[in-house]
Write a structure and sequence with these properties.
The protein is an all-alpha fold. The chain has two domains: 105 residues, Helix Hairpins (Orthogonal Bundle), CATH 1.10.287; 138 residues. It is elongated, with a radius of gyration of 26 Å.
Length: 257
């Protein structure tokens, strides 16, 4: 997934928005292909004598035949024109059918678990953008301190959830948002500004909420630094790299040219 995403960023420009879904499809295809090939190598030494062929079906003992039997068994299609002749091979074919169900279940579960994590990340970015639109240029001073503290604590919880999602579902990192309002890389620096503003406030509850949000942001930066290779000694530097990596900001060298 990382390789396809980097290639899309480097050579295909806007194709980066579909790189992650295509990469997920490639991973699923790799799972199925490797499974089919592995089981085909089990069948190959037993062809054709270990199988019973229906009338009119040529008896072949090559790799193509083994791949066909493996594919039919994995998908549980079971045409019936080529069936195992020995008890051991029958058990092998049944075991492959069970792995086929497991592969299907794993694929569906992976997809269903990925998109809720993406939705949580997009919702956080959208909420930050909505607050920025409503509060600028006043920022947190547009709210009463108790309300501002509650809002920052809510943001901190959402940021912590996003950090856990990135650790649990690494593939969600490679999804690129076409619109900045739903893009966390393009919005996370504003969350850092809110945390700094809150920490400089005189209200103790708001200062605590600011420290809580700052800690959540530091944890997110550690995840980005450790799991996805973002450089930077400070949280700000990591977020700057995160934003640039997702092409929501032009590179300095590109701007110079």
């Amino acid at each position: 997934m990382r390789a396809l995403w980097l290639l899309a960023r480097r050579f295909a420009g806007r194709a980066v928005t579909v790189a992650a879904p295509v990469a997920m499809a490639a991973v699923i295809g790799a799972w199925a292909s490797l499974s089919i090939m592995g089981w085909a190598l089990v069948y190959l030494p037993h062809l054709p004598d270990g199988f019973v062929y229906a009338d009119g079906v040529p008896n072949r003992g090559n790799l193509t035949e083994a791949l066909y039997i493996s594919m039919v068994s994995l998908s549980t299609v079971g045409y019936g024109e080529i069936v195992p002749a020995t008890p051991l091979l029958r058990l092998v074919a049944a075991a492959q059918a069970v792995t086929g169900f497991g592969l299907l279940t794993a694929t569906v579960s992976w997809i269903l678990q990925t998109y809720p994590a993406l939705s949580r990340r997009r919702a956080l970015a959208h909420e930050l953008n909505l607050f920025r639109q409503a509060a600028d240029p006043q920022g947190l001073s547009a709210l009463e301190p108790p309300h501002a503290a509650a809002l920052l604590e809510s943001f901190a919880r959402s940021i912590a959830t996003v950090s856990m999602d990135l650790l649990a579902f690494n593939e969600t990192y490679y999804f690129h948002e076409a619109q900045q309002r739903g893009s966390l890389p393009a919005t996370i620096t504003y969350a850092q500004q809110l945390a700094c503003e809150a920490q400089g406030n005189t209200d103790p509850d708001l200062r605590f909420a600011g420290r809580m949000m700052h800690a959540a942001l530091d944890d997110l930066a550690d995840v980005l630094r450790g799991k996805f290779g973002h450089s930077g000694q400070t949280t700000s530097a990591v977020f700057e790299s995160y934003e640039t990596h997702h092409k929501h900001r032009r590179r300095p060298d590109a701007m110079a040219t």
